[in-house]
Each structure stands twice: as C-alpha cells, then as structure tokens.
Amino acid sequence: xxxxxxxxxxxxxxxxxxxxxxxxxxxxxxxxxxxxxxxxxxxxxxxxxxxxxxxxxxxxxxxxxxxxxxxxxxxxxxxxxxxxxxxxxxxxxxxxxxxxxxxxxxxxxxxxxxxxxxxxxxxxxxxxxxxxxxxxxxxxxxxxxxxxxxxxxxxxxxxxxxxxxxxxxxxxxxxxxxxxxxxxxxxxxx
Length: 190
Description:
The chain contains four helices and eight strands, in the order βααβββββββαα. With 190 residues, the chain is α+β, with helices and mostly antiparallel strands. It folds into two domains: 2-53 and 141-185, Hypothetical protein yqbg (Orthogonal Bundle), CATH 1.10.3230; 56-133.
C-alpha cells in the first residue's frame, strides 16, 4: 500500500509568534527561516509518528482487498473516508459506496467485507481510497507534547545552523527530549 498526499495542511501547528517567543527572538529578520523550520519540524514529527498533525487529505492505493478486511490507514489519525474506487484492466474506475466501510479511528483502520465488493483487475494499484486524516484544523487540536517536540526541533535547528561536519553528527539526530515527547504517539507497524 502506498499513500499520496492530496491536500496539504492549511496551517502549521505552531504560530510564528509562539515560536519566536520560545526562541526568545524579538526581531522579524528571521521570520522566513523560522517558518521554514516550523514546516520541517512538522514533517519530522509526522514522519516519526506516521500521523498527520493538521487535517490533510491522502489517497491510499492497494493492489487488492486484504483477506481479513482490515485496511490500515497511514498516516493517521483517521477522520473519514471520502471516496473509494476500483479499477479494471482497461483502467476504468468504478466508485465504491463508502457506506460499505466501517471506520475504526482508534485502530486507525477501515473494516470492509471485501468479498462483497468488486475486485480490481488492474495489475497494480487497483484500489484507491481517499481519506481525511489529522487531529483537526487548528493548532490547538494537536496534542501539546507533539507541539512541544516541534518547538524543541526548531530551537535545535535554529541554534545549530550550518553544515554538519564529520564528528559532529550528533547535531543531525533527533534531540532526546523531542524523541521522548514523540515516542508515545508513534504508530508501529507489525
């Protein structure tokens, strides 16, 4: 299964003023740099946790329906299934009623009776599922530990700008405090 971003988040989980205050930066000279670091911190936290922080739309593609009828949604957390399609060998798409799926937000899965649905005949990526994921639309919807991990990452990168040289690779790794804040939110693959 692969995941393709359709709609990026409309906002970042941290406001520029919040981050400037955390960094103790009064001037606006580095606003562009700080905004870039915030976006990079969000992507890092999302990659580490396999979770979307702010609401986003993704397309999941599968070759076939899973035998157990359970479709793991990543990134999570799952908010809603918005569309489902199956493709035939001639690359024609057929809509599948989303009412056939039972969302399990806690497990970040979609349950379906696969035997009751049209089977794809396209060689690869015969099924497309469009999902909405994320904690919500506003920064306040994102768990505070993940926002704090982002602040720590931004501060780390802001203070350690420049090239990483041999022997200084510790700067490139995730700061221990940020890693500890992120750890409880990681979605682990089995």
